[in-house]
Design brief:
binds (Z)-L-Arabinonhydroximo-1,4-lactone; Tachylectin-2, Chain A; 39 strands; 6-stranded antiparallel β-sheet; 8-stranded antiparallel β-sheet; Jelly Rolls; globular; 513 residues; 1 helix; mainly beta
Length: 513
């Protein structure tokens, strides 16, 4: 059957995947968001269901006031002898650590630290040995893919850290993963940086310590010369064999907001690309080394996609996230309702404002939510980071016992109140529409009779590109946040995000020019 990429939409970068007991499991980076490391399950590699997070306790990860796009970097998931391991870097504290669990649906252990330099750690369980590799500097000061053997019970190094591969010459060698397939060790990595030059390269050897021989046609997978094409930045992947014997790379990539516009807002998403091994032991990937939107996969199943997200059909612990370590007393989350208590911490702070977020997963989107508050300000933020975010909110007017709805555009040092509309009560229905190129903001105040039959008051529009990663920098994507600021109580109800169109719909040049 045919499937479409991305197979997981929205900001879920740096995918890593393993197989255990009839299912596939996938993790992705989470940076400053908590809980850390989203965890997914699949039976076919195409349909993924988030089943939780790996780092669910503050004791497992330090996120206090960490910089945006710092914190939890690229994780690797592996399964060995009945136990799952997730190894990652806290880039802010420069620590590599792993946690483990024997129950994929349960809690994970406290962190075990490994004293090796670098980021993007990975593990190879091989013949009773456990190898730990990362992209960093070895004990002799040599940089590249660095490896040591560890004691998996303690994380202690059993050998020196040695540079085993320096990549194929691209900048930012990262995401090393080692595989022992038949008699050969394959070392796969990413190079080129996680932007438009991103690529996957590999080398092979008879020994886990090398020397490694580069694949003669590196990069094995990249979209760096594929244009005009909306899927870009293909890189950082993990190799996985399906139970029918077919091989795939699960990798990250991003979708430009338009074929001719080099901006991306949804973050780096998860792509599934077929791999073929040749007689000579080298493998190829995708279509002559590029990743396409559509592929065939063996199996009689359909690709399902959830188009609507509500309070009722999402799980507070799975679909939603917080910034850094949340003050949980500020959140009362019940069936069909989120009550947020604001603090003095605003969305501009590198801290933990009262913020309950859900990733934006596609370009064409309509979000509505009812907000009622007593004091201060509460609403919806289209959040890239503390510097770039668009906010629509109900707030109490300064010095008066009246309420208003405000649209605030924050683009770097430019902080602008675009429009203020008075409303006759302390509640309103806030609406955010996205068409790929613009966010459109409007309000339906609650004293109007029926939402469906009343024309909303338009507050304004803002270009999506200013909350893109090309402007805002860093490694995340847009998260739609419900927020409260001020010592207040804000009630959010009737939340609904509906994705209305497919990416193909905005590939049409006519729509932009
Ligand atoms: C991650 C690196 C990367 O550590 O981006 O695309 C960095 N790859 O491997 C942050 O996600």
């Amino acid at each position: 059957m045919k499937y479409n990429n991305p197979v997981i939409k929205g900001f879920y970068p740096d995918p890593s995947v393993c197989y255990a007991n009839g299912k596939y499991y996938l993790v992705s980076s989470s940076f400053q968001y908590f809980p850390g490391v989203p965890l997914f399950e699949s039976e076919d590699l195409v349909n993924w269901r988030q089943i939780g997070h790996v780092l669910t306790r503050k004791s497992q990860v330090m996120l206090e006031k960490i910089n945006s796009s710092g914190g939890v970097f690229a994780p690797t998931i592996r399964y060995n002898d009945g136990r799952f391991y997730m190894v990652t870097t806290n880039d802010t504290t420069h620590e590599n650590f792993y946690v483990y669990t024997d129950d994929i649906y349960g809690e994970w252990s406290e962190p075990v630290t490994v004293k090796q330099d670098g980021i993007d750690p990975s593990l190879l369980f091989d013949g009773g040995h456990v190898y730990f590799m990362s992209n960093g500097t070895d004990d002799n000061g040599v940089s590249g893919v660095v490896q040591c053997e560890i004691d998996i019970a303690t994380g202690k190094k059993l050998s020196a850290s040695r540079c085993i591969w320096k990549g194929s010459g691209g900048r930012f060698l990262e995401s090393p993963h080692m595989y022992h397939i038949k008699d050969t060790y394959y070392l796969m990595a990413a190079e080129g940086g996680t932007e438009y030059g991103h690529m996957i390269t590999y080398a092979k050897s008879d020994s886990v310590w090398g020397p490694f021989v580069d694949y003669p046609c590196n990069p094995v997978l990249t979209n760096r010369n594929k244009a005009p094409y909306i899927i870009q930045g293909i890189g950082h992947g993990d190799l996985i064999q399906k139970q029918n014997g077919d091989w795939y790379i699960m990798c990250l990539g991003f979708r430009q907001i338009h074929m001719w516009r080099t901006y991306h807002i949804l973050g780096r998403e998860v792509f599934l690309v077929p791999v073929k091994f040749g007689e000579d032991g080298w493998f190829t990937a995708g279509n002559d080394g590029t990743a396409e939107q559509e592929y065939e996969i063996a199996g009689d199943f359909v690709q399902k996609e959830k188009k609507t997200y509500t309070f009722e059909n999402t799980d507070w612990n799975i679909d939603w996230c917080y910034l850094r370590h949340p003050v949980m007393e500020n959140y009362e989350l019940t069936q069909g309702k989120a009550v947020l208590h604001g603090s003095d911490i605003t969305l501009d702070c590198v801290d933990s404002p009262t913020f309950l977020g859900i990733r934006q997963r596609d370009f064409h989107m309509k979000l509505v939510v009812n907000v009622a508050l007593d004091e201060g300000e509460a609403g919806v933020t289209v959040y890239s980071c503390e510097n770039e975010h668009y906010d629509i909110a109900v707030r109490k007017a300064a010095g008066r016992n009246e309420y208003e709805v405000v649209l605030k555009l924050n683009i770097g040092d430019i902080k602008h109140e675009q429009k203020i509309v008075g409303i006759s009560s302390a509640e309103a229905c806030l609406c955010v529409d996205c068409d790929g190129n613009f966010y459109h903001f409007s309000v339906i105040s609650r004293n109007t009779e029926t939402i469906g039959e009343t024309l909303p008051v338009v507050l304004g529009s803002a270009q999506t590109k200013y909350v893109s990663k090309e402007v805002s920098e860093g490694f995340t994507g847009v998260v739609l946040g419900l927020y409260a600021v001020g010592r207040n109580r804000a009630e959010f109800t009737n939340f609904n995000v509906t994705y209305t169109m497919n990416q193909e719909d905005i590939c049409d040049e006519k729509e932009y020019f």
